[in-house]
Amino acid sequence: MGKNKIQRFAELHTFPNVIEADFDEVFGKDHPLKGNWHRQRFNNNNPIILELGCGKGEYTLAMATLDPSKNFIGIDIKGNRIWVGAQKALAENLSNVCFLRTRIDFIESFFAPNEVDEIWITFPDPQPQSNRKRKRLTSPLFLNRYRYFLKPSGIIHLKTDNEQLYGYTLEVIENNRLPLLAATDNLYESDYRHELAGRVQTYYENIFLAEGKRIHYLRFSLDHAEKIV
Fold first, then answer.
1. Of these residues, 76, 125, 191, 223, which one is catalytic?
2. Whole domain around residue 73: which residue ranges?
3. Is 185 assigned a catalytic role?
């Protein structure tokens, strides 16, 4: 590990807007913040929005800046990336944003039923191998985890440049008869380009666009009455 990374990891432990949890703290256990994010972290009852696999937090920060009436939590396992977003949030005094360093596999250990209003999944690993479909963040395995803490009216957003992941997610939505609220295989040629999905772009998204790739976008909600298969 380079000196820069070592320094960043050391600084990350001191950042007041970063929550880190060791494996032993959350494996089969509930984190102390579970059910207490409004009271103990944000000191308000505003809606909570998650960005899964937030990387450097570009989307989390942009959303928090555009809408100070909501609370935003960027989630990623890469501490070196989170350092970038957390440092910028502190520099810009964004009190409605924080970062959670953990594997998304343990997400149920951090949030209680009905605690989260929305989820953004921005350019996740598409897991192209057929035997790794269950690892996709829009697979039934993960959607059922989100069901546990997402409000009944809660919304999930997906942005991806990967046509395969887009199509796969559409199939999951259709097979489970989930409410589909928006769908386009070319975001910036659609009416949705004027919405938040089109107003915020990540570093990698700009690279994809420069390469001529189309950005796919889905917005849907989950049916809490049935298990997703």
1. 125
2. 3-18+46-221
3. no
